[in-house]
Structure formats: C-alpha cells, structure tokens
Amino acid sequence: MISSPPTHPNRSARWTTGIIFLLAVMLLPAAAFGGGAPAPVMISITGAVRHPLELTRTMLTAMESQALQGNDISRDGSYRGVFSYRGVPLKNLLELAGITKKDPGFKKPIDTAVLVRNRSGQQVALSWGEIFYRQPGNVILAYAGTPLHPAHGNCRRCHEDASVYETRLAPLGRTVPYPKLITAGDRRADRWIEDIVEIEVVELPAKPGDRNLKPLYAAAMSIVGQVAKPMTLTALPAGLERHEINIYQVGDGRIYHGPGELAFSGISFQELLQSVGICDDLTAVIVVWSPDGYRSLLSVGEVLLGKDADRLLLADHRNGEKLYEDGRFKLVVPTDLMADRWIKAVGQVDVRSLVQ
C-alpha cells in the first residue's frame, strides 16, 4: 500500500503561505467579471480553518487535478449517468485553508468533520480521516466531466422498445452543475452532491478525560445518540459473527514502530451499529471516545456506504489474548493509511447530526 507522505508542520505552513499568495494573484483577473458580466461561482471554505477561502471554478481548473470514472447510482436506484470526471482532491483544498482547532488539550484533527453544502441546501458530512488518511483521489471536488456513452452506439440493435434505453441515455446529456463532490470510496453515490457552494470544517465540543488513567481501561462501552436502541456493552454481542484481521500498525507520529504484524479479532463495527439501528442521516457523524479523552470521528456515510466499511473492527482480542490495558474494546480502522483513528479502551460511541 502506498501512502501520501506525512505533512511536516513547518513545511506545511510554508507551502500553505505560498499557495495562498498564488490564489490571491489568481483572484485578480476575477475582478474583470464586473462591468455587466455574470459573477463567477464561488465556493467558500469556512469553519475551523486558519485561512477561510473563496474559490471559483476557474481557480479549481488551475490546480493540480485528478481524473476518475464515477458511476452515479444511488442506493434507491436513482441514476445520473456514468462520467469521466476531473477535479481537485478535497484534501488539497483543506490544506490550503489550514485546519485549526480551538481545543488546547487535543490538537489532532482526527475528531473534526467536513460538512459540504450545495446551492439547494443539500448537505453531506465527511470525516477528516476519510479525506486525509486515504489516497488523495478518494474524495475530489470535480469541476468538469465527460459522459461515457455505450461503445456500440446503437441501442436499437438489442432493444426494440426505445423506452428501455432512453431513460438510461437521458442523464448523459444533462448539464451537470459543477463543482460536484465525488466520494470514490463509497459503494453508492448518495453523497455525490452537485453545485457545491460551501465546505465547512466542524470542530465538535471537547469532552475532557483523565489522562492519568493507568492502565487505560473502560469497563463498559455505551452506544448513544441517533440510534434506535441505545445500549451499554460489557462483552461483544454473541449474535454477531466474529472476524479476525492481520495488520501492520503505522501511525502519524512514529510511522512504523513494530513489533510486527498484529492479529485482532472481534466483530464488525458496521454490523454492530446497524444492529442498534444507527440513523441513515448523511449529515451525521460517529464520535468514538476513550476515558483518557482521546477521540476520533467517522462519518455515518463512510460507515454505511464505504466499499471497505465492513472491515472496521471492534476488537476484544489481540494476538489471541483478551484485551485489558487497551480494552476491553478497541476500534481498529484498517482502511486508513495511518492508525491514529484507532481507539484504545473504547468507552462511548456517540452518533450525532452536524446539522441538528
């Protein structure tokens, strides 16, 4: 697995300052849109950022971009076409703005969320981790796209009834209102919203813990918030299938520090949340807390829609031994390139809507 190099704070600051200057220069020609011409579409980056930004689609086209194919099919069967998109990784845009937190006791951004809004008011949430701990092309802001038409070009050869194929061809001719959010890591396109106007970085309220806990331990884990059946667990539910994963732990601080491959066993975190009736709100997030105050955040979208979300593991054993110091439960996020969102001694899982 190839990961992006970790961002060094000083290097990141210099790079951000330089790019902000470049963006300021790029904004100068935009003034020419006065004098009767329509104003360029603006995308604002706001919230917990050091440099709030306003970008135009023209500015996006001048940045380093990536191409990907998007099959725009939602869970309800809604189909908006198959396109070859080109866009800017959302990670790059957020690095330009510079995410900053107010909480002095927990500087890591792994508990922050990103709320994306379009012109009609539709909103979806993403986690910091799914943007920064995956490959950059996992989440992009597309500024252009080309529809992919059937290769044979003549659907009548197979279908006498034109209604069979016309409904499938129609979306290919539509005008897509860019910018468009593409979450390539999702199985379905429910979070692919169009005509984006605002990207807000959200810092949730802090929840202090006891940093002097030795050993770090949580006797029980509660699941609260927007779930149909809140509950407290002292053991993993016997009715859910057990899984085991083998993984090398690589973290942002020490990168790889050994001691070799780890074997964790437990249950699917996705299946556990589905069993308690997690909400289907794509503006909601899941905050996972440890008694010492360490916390991380996942979006409901990445847990319910992610292609590899079934690999999220709530473990109670490591290398064949029952967890104690890191337990009794540990959240393992094997889909991340870094292990910083893994949580030792999970004490609470809180599902909450960013909008409510």
Q: What key attributes describe this structure?
A:
globular; Sulfite Oxidase, Chain A, domain 2; alpha+beta; 21 strands; five-stranded mixed sheet
Question: How would you describe this structure to a colleague?
Answer:
The two termini are 38 Å apart. The longest helix is centred in the first third of the chain and has 19 residues. With 356 residues, this protein is α+β, with helices and mostly antiparallel strands. Strand 5 and strand 6 form a beta hairpin. It has 2 domains: 165 residues, Oxidoreductase, molybdopterin-binding domain (Sulfite Oxidase, Chain A, domain 2); 133 residues, Sulfite Oxidase, Chain A, domain 2 (Alpha-Beta Complex). A 5-stranded mixed sheet has the order 2-1-9-5-6. Strands 11-10-21-16-17 form a 5-stranded mixed sheet. Strands 12, 15, 18, 19 and 20 form a 5-stranded antiparallel sheet that branches. The N terminus is likely disordered. The protein is built from 7 helices and 21 strands. 16% of the residues lie in helices and 32% in strands.
CATH topology of the largest domain: Sulfite Oxidase, Chain A, domain 2
When the domains are counted, the total is 2
Per CATH, which architecture of the largest domain? Alpha-Beta Complex
List SSEs in N-to-C order: HEEHEEHEEHEHEEEEEEEEHEEHEEEE
Q: Mean of the pLDDT scores?
A: 87
Largest sheet: 5 strands, mixed
The total of beta strands comes to 21
| Quaternary status | single chain
